[in-house]
Amino acid sequence: MIVPLSGRSGLLLALLLGSAARAGPPDDALDPSRVAGATIASVLVEKAARRLTLLDADGRAVRQYQHIQLGREPLGPKRFEGDGRTPEGHYTIDFGNPTSAYYLSLHISYPDSRDRAFAAAAGRKPGGAIFLHGSPNGFSQRPAGDWTEGCIALDNREIEEIWALVPDDTPIDILP
């Protein structure tokens, strides 16, 4: 019996089959055996440490990714559209976008009501369209340094793994 794959896992399988060179785990990840069968309950981003960690329901690290890249102005929380900063706070990864301008993107629920109120009080827009994502389409590697408009960029093989492991509605905490 053939069971069709759909959604994120089907896309990931197609990507992995077409790209065996990226099949290995990230160099700086935790023990790969912890990923097998793991259910990811939350995501933790530590901006200053340049680290993204996938956590299980007990708060244990299942996988870590070092050297993440942030908005072009990495210090401080995102406040306004165009400020080039990455948000800080508690959000949700609410959907995946396999056809974005960046290799596989997972949307972060910024702005929340507090972010909108802060921006409105200043007569500004809070911005939006904040994602975890890979390289710009057509490029196999990320640009150097902090280059996004506020997103969190990873290597393409890292976002492939995160895409497969992190379901919609997963909480994400972004710390300074």
Description:
Helix content is 17%, strand content 23%. The chain is α+β, with helices and mostly antiparallel strands and 176 residues long. It has a single domain (7-175), classed as Beta Barrel (L,D-transpeptidase catalytic domain-like), CATH 2.40.440. It has an eight-stranded mixed β-sheet. A hairpin with a 7-residue loop joins strand 4 and strand 5. Helix 1 packs antiparallel against helix 3. Mean pLDDT is 85; it is low at 1-6 and 9-28.
Write the layout of secondary structure elements.
Blueprint: H1 7-17, E1 42-46, E2 51-55, E3 61-66, E4 89-97, E5 105-108, H2 113-121, E6 130-133, E7 152-153, H3 156-165, E8 170-175
Parallel strand pairs: 1-8, 6-7
Antiparallel strand pairs: 1-2, 2-3, 4-5, 4-8, 5-6
Q: Helix coverage percent of residues?
A: 10-25%
What would the principal axes of the Cα set say about the shape?
globular
Record the strand order, biggest sheet: 3-2-1-8-4-5-6-7
CATH class: Mainly Beta
Report how far the terminal alpha carbons are from each other.
49 Å
Write down the Rg: 16 Å
CATH homologous superfamily identity: L,D-transpeptidase catalytic domain-like
Number of helices: 3
For the biggest sheet, the summary is:
8 strands, mixed
Summarize the structure.
By secondary structure, the chain is of the alpha+beta class. The chain has helices at 7-17, 113-121, 156-165; strands at 42-46, 51-55, 61-66, 89-97, 105-108, 130-133, 152-153, 170-175.
Q: What tags apply to this protein structure?
A:
176 residues, L,D-transpeptidase catalytic domain-like, eight-stranded mixed beta sheet, 3 helices, 8 strands, globular
